[in-house]
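Researcher: Before we compare anything, I want clean individual predictions. No alignment, no superposition, just each chain on its own. First chain goes here; please echo the sequence and then give the structure tokens.
Model: Echoing the first chain and its structure:
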Amino acid sequence: MLRFLTSGESHGMGLLAILEGMPAHLRLREDDINYELKLRQGGYGRGGRQKIEKDRVIIISGLRHGYTLGSPIGMHIVNRDFENWRMVMDPFLPGTGKKRDKKVTNPRPGHGDLAGLVKYDHLDVRNVLERASARSTAARVAIGAICRMFLKEFGIGIYGHVTEVGGIECETPELSPGEIRARVAKSPLRSTDPEADKKIMAAIDKSKSEGNTLGGIVEVVVENVPVGLGSHVEWDLKLDAKLAEAVMSVQAIKGVEIGMGFDVARRRGSEVHDPIHYDEAKKNTRTRGFYRDRNNAGGIEGGMTNGMPVVVRAAMKPLSTLLNPIQSVNYDSKEPAVAAIERSDVCAVSACEVIVEAVVAYTIADALIRRLGGDSLQAMKPRFEQMTGETLGGCLPSPPKNIFLVGYMGTGKSRIGSDLARLLNWGFIETDDEIEAAAEKKISDIFASDGEPRFRELESGQIQEAAGRTHRVIATGGGAVLSDENVSLMKENGKMICLNASVEEILGRVGEAADRPLLANQATPERIEKMLSERASRYQLADIQIDTNGKSVEQIIGEILQALQ
């Protein structure tokens, strides 16, 4: 089983985390953890602290040459702001008596200030608020990031989004997981609704001007979960109970729903419970052939996963530090006073969504480890295959080394490639840009002065260089596939994905194509049709074909992610 401990104060030297029980031979990358830490720091409505901190994990134990050892994983996240609070938070040196170091005696309603003073016999609220602060969630996000990487080994994915802020609801249309991820990655609030984002940002600005704060609701979904995680036999083994505990332990969370949640109390049984169906063709999958056409249960029945996606929602209250503070009492004098003011956010719902994803990942990973047993991935994967009837090698290819986007000009390789790279937290390379930088001239000038053969030579050089890297999305030129050597390099060093579009769609995107040498102001349907026909067999060499006609960037990225599964 998994367990963890964290320590550290908000303005202390840093945060520490120890994760115990993670099996050996899991491949970890610092960038994957740091990416989640960066997401936690983002979002509209965050305060000045996020401009100071640049959270990055330092792994100090449990890892060797990029793989877990099976021993406890120790992590450290430095608090850069400690330098500004050194005399206030130094473990040994006495305070200076300056303003920042003065005793905090007016507890904030809604925070742990007052209860902590009474429980621990403190006289200074700072002795409570420093640890009660949500700063500690950075350590939990780092732990959750490792758990996400573990779950990926078994084809289990986690995504989430903000569904409401300050009473403003976000529209959540029927979108694929890939489309949701793509929209969330572009949203300043981690929602799927750009129009709601505008209203919410205006509400956050208004609350800030009034010295107030806003809360909201987040939803997290776990997909591809096998049947049988958790148990019905004891109260403390029920997975929904464990999820509720984990999510409620996040600062400022005041309510948790699974599936339909509280709405089940307002409906009849026939409207709540999910009818069961069976498909013989799917009997050798992780659902064993059973499926539902709706998911009101949120993927859990009797404390166990039932094969449907696990759906968890959390309600976050407005933060308790108000720049226009409300009534409190001075703890020393017992006289009426206004609550203390600490540096804080106006709205941290977007950060809360990242944190809830992390604690859900930890809880599901723990349940899977309990179900499978074993101290290494090599021991666990055969048990998973036996449990689900699936072969991991077949249904779960390893993430590609790189992704090469090929296709005719105007099919969206640059735009889709940059957004896909951002979503994956990978680097992005556009070979045409690299060629211009290396040659110190525009591609049109290369064609004019040196001819197409010289351009193709430069192009091959850039593809060869890109192929030597890892975790890159590479947008290639339309004619890159004409070289057998280029195709071999791309297929040997990643996945080759072809983006396709109709002649009409391409014409609408490239316009007169004055800057495209092979069209040279001759962007006619006949010209494009001829070039497409000449290159068709080369584009067919790609591993994956994606039709981009009439689709949004989010839809296209969603299809790419689905295909890579």
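Researcher: Okay. Second chain, same rules.
Model: Second chain and its structure:
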Amino acid sequence: MNYHFIQNLNLNIRVNTETTRMAQAKIPFKVMEELIKNTNSVANNVTMFYKDDSNRETLNHEQLKLMLPAIQEALLTLISNIENDFWVGKYIQVLYPGNPNNKDSGLVRYTHPYQHNGMNIEVVLNYKPNVLGGPFYPERPGAIINHWKEQVF
């Protein structure tokens, strides 16, 4: 398995099930560290974006616990394939085209199907395409994420 250096992960996570429609997932720092670690990665900058005025629901603690395996698989699939141009062309949807010379611009989406106990789950990862970079080193011994931020939009 390859080791990944995530330079910038600017991410909004939503989950679709039979009972939740595009519910946003608020991921706590320690949980995000585990998710990143389980993708065989370290991250320099991670920003989780949340809508404060959304008409959509936010997963509660129990719902989030149940959805973590699906979110983990979606994130692992994305990070493992993000450098594969064929995969990106097939599975990544451009929401807002950015400047091709500035990967900090633009917004893209990966939608990951997941099944558990007969339930169909869809994990939607909206992110800026400036994900990978490096190498860099943890700023604290054993750190998985150097800089963490949660931002409401």
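Researcher: What stands out in the second chain?
Model: The beta strands are 4-16, 23-24, 41-50, 92-96, 107-116, 119-127, 145-152. Additionally, The first helix runs from residue 29 to 37.
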